[in-house]
Write a structure and sequence with these properties.
By secondary structure, the chain is of the alpha+beta class. The chain contains 6 helices and 6 strands, in the order αβαααββααβββ. The chain has a 6-stranded antiparallel sheet, sandwiched between helices.
């Protein structure tokens, strides 16, 4: 009888832990980042409100039958998202590389150092930039949004514990992906947003 009770208690505790993980949009560890692509999968991850707002806007434009283009960036001045976005240019010749484009106030404040490199793959630490380039290649190849939650990538200030990022494809007139609109939000050890 005691064995059955212990077994039920363990199952109850495991179920409770799973529910707590689902409820917390910040549950990620250094070893286990969450990376998903596709609109439904991203919403299932319960991203931060600003990320959801950006994704909703991108979906609204995409629903009109065309891939969103760079022109949508100017619209964020009204919605208050402009300080949180950054733009990556997709350079296709001779092979796909990613170049820093627009980087706004919030990202500059969060960055531990100014990005001196023009291309992302020239930025240190190389392991993080290689991972980020892989995410961007996936956005370009699949032509759909990608969401990442985990330890901060790139040289952000050391007090940040978790980073949530959304990467959205942007196209040119020929419907080829020529940019990635990104938004990154950070949470420090005290639970404050940056």
């Amino acid at each position: 009888m005691q064995h059955r009770f212990d077994h039920r208690r363990r199952l109850w505790q495991q179920n409770r832990l799973l529910q707590q993980k689902r409820r917390s949009p910040w549950h990620a560890t250094e070893n286990e980042p969450v990376v998903v692509s596709g609109i439904t999968s991203i919403f299932e991850q319960n991203p931060a409100p600003k990320l959801r707002q950006l994704l909703h806007y991108w979906i609204k434009i995409k629903a009109s039958g065309r891939m969103p283009s760079r022109e949508i960036v100017s619209v964020f001045q009204i919605s208050g998202l402009l300080p949180y976005v950054w733009l990556i240019d997709v350079v296709r010749s001779p092979h796909i590389r990613f170049r820093f484009g627009l980087i706004k106030t919030h990202v500059h404040r969060a960055n531990a150092q100014e990005p001196l490199a023009r291309y992302l793959d020239e930025t240190e630490p190389k392991a993080d930039t290689a991972m980020l380039c892989d995410y961007f290649r996936r956005v370009v190849a699949e032509e759909r949004p990608l969401f990442r939650r985990g330890r901060p990538l790139l040289p952000w200030r050391s007090n940040f514990r978790i980073q949530q990022s959304l990467y959205l494809p942007l196209s040119d007139q020929a419907r080829q992906i020529d940019g990635i609109l990104a938004m990154s939000l950070f949470r420090d050890g005290a639970g404050r947003w940056h």
